UniProtKB/TrEMBL annotation:
Organism: candidate division WOR-3 bacterium JGI_Cruoil_03_51_56
Domain Helicase C-terminal as annotated: residue spans: 231-403
Main EC class the enzyme belongs to: isomerase
Keyword DNA repair annotated: no
Domain of life: Bacteria
Leader sequence segment: none
Pfam families reported in the protein's UniProt record: DEAD (PF00270), Helicase_C (PF00271)
Catalysed reactions, as listed in the record: Couples ATP hydrolysis with the unwinding of duplex DNA by translocating in the 3'-5' direction
The name this protein goes by in its record: DNA 3'-5' helicase
Length: 578
């Protein structure tokens, strides 16, 4: 049996601090895993140190001769941080993901040879039959500890439900019955916790207080994008250290980063497929951007949710939201990036008119179209199995639409479709979409969005509001936020000159329109096209003058669309752009 002193020694080695000690609940979680072999769901605030718990537990279990730890982790940024942390405890951690496919055979052999102490995988790996059959199942009965990081992703009641997490329930059947399990999250209310517990089964919950004493919170409604851009240009330089500006879309990330650079503020855009000519792929580019922020070489990283769970920069000075997120839980997780190891950090939530429209669009697209579902099921039922390309030819849907339907169907239990190598096949399971369930979840998302609006306009302590939304019973007024002190913690005003310049910037901020370079095989048989279009027949990159409702030309487009006539001012702007 391992004692607290031994575990504390590992903690000090991991942190490189001679006098480090456990935070409340950390040793209790380690003890439950390594000495009592329990299934444990830990709900603790961001920055509490959940990764320290499972890496110290891994080191202890490996020293006893247990098998490797399997860590299911949702984001590449999170995986990279965790591998660096594992190194400090002499834990050989490997990751199998989409960016290192050429290394899979070597990594697989290391796992089968018991040369790896920890294996980090994304939930999407669980959907890859080749990985499950050749890597996971052969070692499943030797796994010493299963860690489900960001466990709220298992629940479709959660703010960041990921269908592939559901496959974990099936994988658990092949693992040792007395294997300890650790689920971790900082963003789950009671309804989500109940759902996670029911799926993982026989799991004990350890909850800690979610109050973040270092965060100074403020909310601010501004009329349009130009007002928010003006506010950012004038107030980002005043905020301490470096930070993150969150946007809802990739195009907003690019636009806000360009605007900040235009105003002499060092900023870069970050999202899942961000690219740069300087780097061979998106993964290398993202790593470079993460390092730039961590090393304080830029003032702000303008990011979508791709930079979220697990990104660790202890001295991050601020998190500003250019647009309101979909739920309080999402906001708590993102604003919690700031102030982990400093006494004072700022969290400012800006909100504008287009936020509601963006989230309505996201909600409409949360579930696949029923017609698409039925068409794909019918196509599969009439065959002995089809590849995704063959399905595309059969039902005339885009690749992304087909992938969305197949993922939606394949995580159902029992599933109406299965994947056999590269082919998808229809099972005998009868299927119809559960409209009642979809409506319940949609209403829940709408209620979560309303809760965000209530937070923005709340007159009570903002930290108490966040904690109560997460069912934290230990909340108390923070004494730091704009509501507690009775005035803004960051000035709300911005100059008219900045607002005018922002409007001018938006009107000149045209966007590239990249046309397709590929077509489905045999889609144009008369012309003999085979996938890639010939270079001389590809459309050149176009230009987009505005986005729907933006503060540049978008509002005029929205007004004129329904009148049947676009005014001369818009036509002149198009001519000038061309």
């Amino acid at each position: 049996m391992s004692d607290r002193g031994q575990a504390c020694g590992l903690l000090r080695k991991a942190l490189g601090t001679a006098d480090a000690d456990f935070r409340p609940g950390q040793w209790e979680a380690i003890d439950a895993l390594v000495n009592q072999r329990k299934r444990l769901l830990v709900v603790q605030r961001t920055g509490w140190g959940k990764s320290s718990v499972y890496f110290i537990a891994t080191r202890i279990l490996r020293d006893r001769g247990s098998g490797p730890t399997l860590i299911v982790s949702p984001l590449l940024a999170l995986m990279r941080n965790q591998i660096e942390a594992a190194d400090r405890l002499r834990i050989k951690a490997l990751t199998v993901n989409s960016t290192n496919r050429e290394d899979w055979p070597e990594l697989t052999q290391a796992i089968l040879n018991n040369e790896a102490d920890a294996l980090l995988i994304s939930p999407e790996r669980l959907a890859n039959d080749e990985f499950v059959q050749s890597v996971l199942l052969p070692v499943a009965n030797r796994i010493g500890l299963l860690v489900v990081d960001e466990a709220h992703c298992i629940s479709d009641w959660g703010h960041d439900f990921r269908p592939d997490y559901r496959r974990l329930v099936n994988v658990l059947k092949y693992m040792p019955p007395n294997m300890p399990v650790l689920g971790t999250t900082a963003t789950a209310n009671n309804r989500v916790l109940d759902d996670v517990c029911s799926q993982l089964g026989g799991i004990q919950v350890q909850r800690g207080p979610l109050m973040r004493e270092s965060l100074v919170l403020q909310t601010l409604r501004l009329p349009d994008q130009s007002a928010r851009l003006a506010w950012l240009a004038e107030h980002i330089p005043e905020l301490p250290g470096t930070g993150i500006v969150y946007t809802l879309t990739r195009r907003d990330a690019d636009q806000v980063a360009d605007w900040l650079e235009y105003n002499g503020i060092e900023a870069k855009a970050y999202y899942s497929d961000v690219k740069s000519p300087e780097f061979p792929d998106s993964n290398a580019c993202r790593r470079h951007l993460e390092d730039m922020l961590r090393d304080n070489r830029i003032k702000a990283l303008v990011a979508t949710t791709a930079l979220g769970m697990g990104y660790d920069k202890p001295d991050l000075g601020f998190v500003v939201h250019y647009q309101a997120p979909s739920s309080i839980i999402t906001y708590y997780q993102q604003v919690g990036r700031a102030g982990r190891a400093i006494d004072r950090a700022f969290g400012v939530l800006l909100s504008g008119r287009e936020d509601k429209e963006i989230h309505e669009f996201f909600r409409r697209g949360a579930f696949p179209n029923e017609g698409h579902v039925n068409a794909i099921l019918k196509s599969l039922a009439g065959s002995d199995g089809l590849t995704e390309r063959q399905i595309e030819e059969s039902v005339n849907l885009r690749k992304g639409q087909i992938e969305k339907v197949l993922k939606f169907l394949s995580v159902d239990s029992p599933a109406p479709v299965i994947k056999d190598s590269r082919h998808w096949k229809r099972t005998p399971v009868e299927y119809s979409m559960d409209h009642a369930h979809i409506q319940r979840l949609t209403r829940q998302r709408e209620a979560e969005w309303q809760e965000v609006q209530d937070y923005i306009d709340s007159r009570e302590c903002l930290m108490v509001f966040l904690a109560r939304a997460l069912d934290d019973e230990n909340s108390r007024p923070c004494g730091r936020c704009a509501r507690c002190i009775g005035h803004p913690v960051v000035a709300e005003a911005y100059s008219q000159a900045s607002a005018v310049e922002a409007v001018r910037f938006l009107k000149q901020s045209e966007l590239p329109l990249t046309c397709r370079r590929q077509v489905a095989a045999d889609a144009f048989r008369e012309y003999g096209f085979q996938g890639n279009l010939p270079e001389n027949l590809r459309a050149e990159t176009g230009r987009v003058l505005s986005r729907w409702g933006d503060a540049g030309w978008g509002q005029l487009v929205a007004e004129d669309k329904h009148s049947g006539h676009f005014r001369d001012e818009l036509a002149s702007a198009l001519v000038e752009m061309i």
